[in-house]
Structure to design on (429 residues):
């Protein structure tokens, strides 16, 4: 399916300020709303963290799985006191590594004016070092 | 090199139904064919899994390396019975974690009407929980 | 914020030849310069490795954290002699796994003619098997 048209680019920022240090927040509806506002019918939608200690991921909205993901993240990129980064006064090196592990961003197709997700795909903001305002960017390009 | 033109967007879905639970399937030629069909000369090509338990990766088409990758994936995101996700009746939490580990998607440049890959870069569909129909999306935007 | 215009696509390749086998090289300025040259005001900028043993990552430009990242990469994707890939005569299977772990690429928003990064986000070329010429691609699409 090939379509042609005039290019539009839409930009939106969203700020999160989580109560907990680590949190998974479902943002599928916010991204869908951005796609609607953009009036873009066909294109690509970037959703990206603007920080080094949070990520955007696509996963299932299932509480048990979320617990598995947190345990797994803690195993592969554990909180520890003795990271060298902590010599600067920081205490969040594990959050940087968790961000590297699951990548900071996703890019999603927009088709027929809608976010083109698989049946079980939900978009999550993954906070690894919260309790302070943190920003993501949604940037949509298309026709 | 800067080029201008009228925007085109091309969309294609491909369904896989692997015989094995875990499989790496080379799809470089399928993506190249999509780029040809799109008639897009310059742009970006998203190739993305529409599931939570399969991925698109770029790697070498070398059998020994593929075995190394599978062993490594199993070490870092092992199959286990006691994931909390399995309380829902599922048995594939490891496949979700493998998907998070290697990311669900890649985005590739299209240059001079061709997929602009490095010499050894091949695109693979990585199935972590197969034996059922699963879909990927190819979305190309450009001029 | 929605904007419309004529589509431009800009392409640039950069070659690295690191002195060390493993190195993190900050390339934020090179990517910013590419965005300037493109004259693109709103769009998306792909920065991607064209190899299987190097990556583009976004992280903090802090030396302690970089050491933490290298130790972590070596723990999760260690150099070993007995990878099956090494039966081909290669010795860099760990570099392939490191590339898979942190992903090969990032895609960044371009806003108001500038790379739209968070305050602490710096772009790095991550070399896992250097001492030979290796290429990355920057591809920007927008208006």
């Amino acid at each position: 399916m090939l379509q042609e048209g005039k290019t539009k680019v839409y930009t939106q920022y969203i700020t999160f300020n989580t109560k907990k240090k680590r949190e998974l927040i479902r943002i599928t509806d916010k991204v869908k709303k951005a796609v609607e506002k953009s009036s873009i019918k066909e294109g690509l939608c970037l959703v990206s963290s603007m920080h080094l200690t949070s990520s955007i991921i696509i996963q299932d909205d299932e509480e048990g799985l979320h617990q598995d993901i947190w345990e797994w993240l803690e195993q592969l990129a554990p909180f520890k006191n003795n990271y060298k980064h902590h010599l600067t006064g920081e205490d969040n090196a594990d959050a940087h590594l968790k961000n590297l592990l699951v990548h900071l961003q996703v890019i999603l197709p927009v088709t027929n004016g809608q976010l083109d997700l698989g049946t079980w795909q939900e978009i999550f903001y993954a906070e690894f070092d919260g309790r302070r305002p943190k920003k993501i960017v949604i940037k949509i390009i298309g026709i």
